[in-house]
Amino acid sequence: MELTRKGSISHRDALLNAEHSIARIKDFVSKDLQRLKYHFMAPAYWINDPNGLIYFKGEYHMFYQHYPYGPQWGAMHWGHAKSKDLVHWEHLPIALAPSEAYDLHERGGCFSGSAVDDGGILSILYTGTIIRDGQLIQTQCLATSEDAITFEKYAGNPVIPSPPEEGSADFRDPKVWKHDGIWYMVVGSSKDGKGKALLYNSQDLRHWEYIGVLAESDGTMGTMWECPDFFPLGERYVLMFSPMGMGDRKTIYLVGDMDYQTGKFNWDVMGDVDYGYEYYAPQSFLDDKGRRVIIAWLNAWDWMRWFKNFGPTSQNNWCGAMSAPRTVELDADGRLRFPPVEELKLLRREQYHYENVKVIPGTSLLPDYVGSDCLEIKAEFQLAGCVAEEFGFILRASEDRKQQTLLIYNTKSKELRFDRTNSDGWSEGIPSAKLDTFSDSEILNFHIFIDTCVIEVFTDNYRVAMTNNVYPDPSSIFVDLFAIGNSVNVNSIDIWKLCSSDGTLNG
Ligand code: FRU
What is the pTM of this model? Predict the structure, then answer.
């Protein structure tokens, strides 16, 4: 039961209520067999966007949109966790709860935002959201912490009390960075059916000046840009956002040049951060190794379906998780690559290695004992001379193969499809991506991470990522390769059983 609904409440009491609610259910939730083994989840109930990702005083901090009173979206809090290696996370007390006139509302709260190190003070910029007289009111707010655990909302909030003329009431998800000693903020907005990224700057995080529209949709790139993120990469800049109203495309990136004089971002390359149906609101940060790392919510808004229910795990009092961390790299032709972070190797246990094998239509290649609900797979298919029509992977299959998820590459259309038709009876849709490279080699490489109810696929030299959820029976652990029409040669396959991030071996 949520105790913060009516009237006023102190921030401290709102946080205590939220902690109490989670404490009551978390042991029960932890017994659910569908809980992920190495992807980050809240201890219980609802999670959406990653927020405030930062490498701060030697540790990675992750905050996240959290509803601590049920397995569905509700008044937004900021959950909090930290890690030394991006793989093993320690839960910390909830950092922000709705408590003030500008963020206390059952359909509002402390919406997404970012964190910066302001001279040793961990400072959060987030969107306070309320609904007054049926009107959405979104403002940008500040909260700070001296110990990186307890956050105090700034008495002068909101620091940006209203959207500029070029924006609208949809005015959220501030991402802040420092350039030449000045703070900059990009905020997502929308006007006349066009998504936008609005640019501000500030000397002190408390007083903000509107600069203008950093970039906006040309009419085909979504009606509202959620969770914009803007960062330098090599000589260039990248704008990432999650567009509403852009069909199956959930996360877009633009690569271009930034002109701080005019506040304009001139982009010339556009791509998809991930082609799956369940990878949304990625946020980036720079770590001490100089890596640009992104983490995203392993789900995406699907209100039509959620109107019925929030998916299989919500019956077990949790919903949502975070993707494995990926790095963002600039490829030679100006596009982006997203290889998963090296630290994931910490999870590797038993390894199976095969070399120069042929996948023959209608026959099985891999022995049953390599199966597990937690696997990492790397494979290199030989495209030179390949006359198979299609080939790929059978994942999370039951022993009789009635339940299975297919990853299919079509050699003619050069299209990759993630087919969930027989995955679990709940998941639907077939996300796809065109693979247009391997220009300099005739090899198609795959890198796949499987964890209880998520599959993250990387291919085309990490230029294509495809992330989707599946909810098969716990016993559906089998994995295999297949070919249709003719055989395909595989240079190598490596399969690792992965342990859970608490060290337990699976499978
Ligand atoms: C993206 C988003 C953000 C918003 C948050 C609310 O998933 O819609 O725009 O701040 O979720 O939870």
Answer: 0.96
